[in-house]
Design goal:
This protein is mainly alpha-helical. It has 12 helices and 6 strands.
Length: 281
Amino acid sequence: MNNKIIDQQQLMALCGVLGDTYNGFTKNELSKLLQQSNINLVDDGSFNNGYIYRTGLNKKDWLYNCLCNEINTTKSLNKVYDFLEKAFNPVSFTEESKREKYHTLLEKVNKVLLMAGLNINNEGKIKQVEVARTLDEVDRRVNSLKKQLYNRAIHKEVQKYCIADYLKEDYFDAVFEAAKGLAERVREITGLKLDGGKLFDTAFSTKDPYIFFNSLQTESERSEFIGLKELLSSIFHLVRNKAAHTPKINWWVEETMALDVLTLISFAHKYLDKCYKMPNK
């Protein structure tokens, strides 16, 4: 599955995150994930016969033993990678109450994996990335980005599409995916199946709109309505159309430029937060 190697210290660090008492997975959750990946559960040393109770290994040490046993038995990390992908399958965190735990754990796990040249993306899949050699580099690629996005109040819809690409330092894909997210957002609001300019022209038609955020009664309201449509169209012409038709090597995007474009896309999303589907559509 992957030719990258997780060493002993990295494995211990991963288990420390996943088995954390307060923010990690429960023992029951870890057991189910291990079984789904066909990894044997080792004895944790606990004992209870009704009269005598002995506490076993803590979660992180028990998990480490389970994974080490698998690696030593099969001489392979494939099931370990499968376990990690199952642990971060987004479908397991669809409830709003679980989102914070998901993002916190994913960030902490990716900090460890970056040192091994790996990264779990937003689809829950392990991808190879450039190896981070130092803690400063890990912080630069994770914490620095998070701080900059926070300082710019970047919309959560933008973060959803681009965090994984930023970890890879792939700013080209980050802005491309975030731009695509705008069209998806308009489709979700309107129910339309169109794309690009045709989508925005149809959704924001002043004669027969599919979407609204004001009454369109005054010249100022109509101007603002048309302005949002033109903003969305401009972003597509500037970013998505160019990225889709230009070889990546010919369109270099550095971090500052990417943050500027993402800020613009975020601004558009904040307008879309105020938009609703027309009742007659």
